[in-house]
Amino acid sequence: MNQTITLEGLTKRYGRATAVDELTCAVHPGVVTGFLGPNGAGKSTTIRMIVGLDRPSSGRAAVGGRPYHALPAPLREVGVLLDGRSAHPRRSARDHLRMLAASNRIRDRRVTAVLEQVGLDGVADRRAGTFSLGMSQRLGIAAALLGDPGVLIFDEPVNGLDPGGIRWIRGLMRGLAAEGRTVLVSSHLLAEMEQTADHLIVIGRGRLLADTPMTSVTGSLEDAYLALTADSVEFGS
Ligand SMILES: Nc1ncnc2c1ncn2[C@@H]1O[C@H](COP(=O)(O)OP(=O)(O)OP(=O)(O)O)[C@@H](O)[C@H]1O
């Protein structure tokens, strides 16, 4: 399938506030695209609209030309990590993934495969509520990978991961892109993005500020980012 994510005039208003403002851009397969912007810029809201958790006020978000809700087997086409702590705390990691697999007609052996892939095979039968933040993030990543999707979206995946985990997810994202998948990742960790992303989409106050290959960033990403977003920071210095 066509694995490009396309946003066309994507807009989300909450009352009089505009969280996402006429966003038009595309996220392509085969590369890691970093999705950057200050707190409150609209990254999570954009991701939620891509995966059908929020309705756009106007405009469109599509994957392979189709809105998420029109995909016949969404988890097999788009994997998303939004909040690592999404599993029921009393349910084991394995059961959480089994339920997701069953509801999306994904074979049970994928559960074992993704548990191994994220390094949770040794704790698969422990309740998710006893997991550390980093382990919960890994479980969320396992859920995103479950359907072997061509499109992966990670909202702050490095959150809570230790240095070994950070290196692991960097390799995971690079590997997924090298397999030809579309990888969109939001993060505030610019040094990490500098090592991971091939392409950058930067938003501020819901608007597109930059859509550019990493190679066009001269000097440090931090300097370039802070200059670009200087007028778009709602909170902070
Ligand atoms: N359900 C909601 N109701 C009202 N306003 C909302 C809602 N969800 C988000 N917003 C507002 O939309 C704006 C964008 O928020 P969003 O969470 O998308 O930003 P973000 O770029 O992901 O931020 P962060 O980096 O802090 O996670 C913020 O001003 C936020 O307060």
TrEMBL record:
Keywords annotated in UniProt: ATP-binding, Nucleotide-binding, Transport
GO molecular function: ATP binding; ATP hydrolysis activity
Claim: Transmembrane is one of the keywords in the record: no
Domain of life: Bacteria
Domain ABC transporter: 5-230
Matches recorded under PANTHER family: ABC TRANSPORTER, ATP-BINDING PROTEIN
Family designation: Belongs to the ABC transporter superfamily.
Protein name: ABC-2 type transport system ATP-binding protein
Organism whose genome encodes this protein: Nonomuraea endophytica
Organism lineage: Bacteria, Bacillati, Actinomycetota, Actinomycetes, Streptosporangiales
